[in-house]
Amino acid sequence: MSLTILLILELEQKLKYPNSPSSNLDTARAIAQLIHIKGGRALIVGGFVRDTLLGIDSDDIDIEVFGIDPSNLEDLLDQTFKVNKVGKSFGVYKVKGHSIDIALPRTETKKGKGHKGFDIKSDPNLDYKNAAARRDFTINAISWDPLTEEIIDPYNGQDDLSSRTLRHTSEQFKEDPLRVLRAMQFIARFNLTPTPETIETCRSITIEELAPERIFDEWKKLIVKGKNISDGLNFLKETDWIKYFPELKALINCKQDPEWHPEGDVWVHTLHCMNAFATNRINDEVEDLIVGLAVLCHDLGKPLTTITIDGRIRSPKHDIKGIDPTLSFLTRMTADKTFIESVPPLVQHHMRPRDFYNNNASDSAIRRLANKTERLDRLVRVSTADSMGRPPLPSDNCPEGDWLLKKAAELKIKDTAPKPLIQGRHLINEGLSTGPEMGETLKQLFEDQLSGEFHTLEEGLVHYRKLR
């Protein structure tokens, strides 16, 4: 069966399910029909076609319109659809209520550094091959006509999809350095093998002045969508782009004790850990990204601490020393406090679950750990990935995770940090005035709560009166 027929069958299958993105596809067909009536042609391009050929559901549709003058396209669309125009130098129209972007084919000429350093010109009369030449990879340069059901594939992207090959489309690939990081996450998501030519091309590209948020977005896709995350990370190593992430580069050839880490150096261990994490995602993007970043960074302290003592390789306090390189890695890409504040504590305490299990830690110690890490379920996920990243050692030998989660559930702190039972208003009712004394009192009461001195507000107030 040809890929064209497979694509048609897949698209028709999507239309049968009300919860699928069929409404987007129906709207895309209506747009294509409107364009056709006016003498133009609308093609669905890029990721939607790629994903459909791979049998993956895709919500977002990009449409490229040929044969319609830019001055007429907006008026034409406004007759039937509600659209918003975005982009100053070229027009992209977003259809309200749908994940659909509409644009004209365009040429891009590199004039300066960064993703804004392009001279962009719309050209509705551009031929299909030249329009596709600006796309990054052959697998993203396939177009599909929703009216005629024709696939247009000037760079043989279907063959590369079949062979799981990642190949850059043209020499224009070099003009946007972000494409190297896109390659990283595509390789991990779709089990692709880059061609030697694409690897060499990426080696010749520098990171230039990429905006941090664009870099972080590609890392996010790697972590929350990657299947073989190790392949994406190894691509950074092969292309020498790992040098732009020195905290990770330092893991390469950082030795470990072979008894505890028979898999190899810290880099190899981290790759195994990331693949283990990928098999246990919970499909909550924020939670998966926090945990995935912590797994990626959990041993960043080892290059700073690894020594040999009596013939044994040790990394004392690498968990604590890992905080600074973790913050360095994160803050170059994002200022989002969700990650800046949540990831480092998981790195710092990633060995505590096993320590607590081996020493049968008290309820008080578990409460304090939950207070430091925000959520013990996150910490267990990091610790479990760490344990699973040591082949050929058994990957299921981590009883500490189940033990800690059970204890946390009993203490009602599995997915939340303990919260102070006594607030300032309670102490005001007890006759204590606001000021430094109240702050110190609240701090002491919370410490006593974590120690198990009281478990309810009423018990806490009795405890306070005794202290007073």
Number of strands: 13
Morphology: globular
Low-pLDDT residue spans = 3-21
**Average pLDDT rating:** 91
Strand content: 5-15%
Straight-line distance between termini: 82 Å
**Widest β-sheet, arrangement of strands:** 3-4-5-2-1-8-9
What radius of gyration results from the CA coordinates?
Answer: 27 Å
Number of alpha- plus pi-helical segments:
24
The portion of residues assigned to helices is: 40-55%
> Could you describe the largest sheet, including whether it forms a barrel?
7 strands, mixed
Class by alpha and beta content: alpha+beta
Overview of the structural elements:
- The chain has 468 residues and is an alpha+beta fold.
- It is built from 24 helices and 13 strands.
- It has a seven-stranded mixed β-sheet with strand order 3-4-5-2-1-8-9. Strands 6-7 form a two-stranded antiparallel sheet.
- The longest helix has 16 residues, at 22-37.
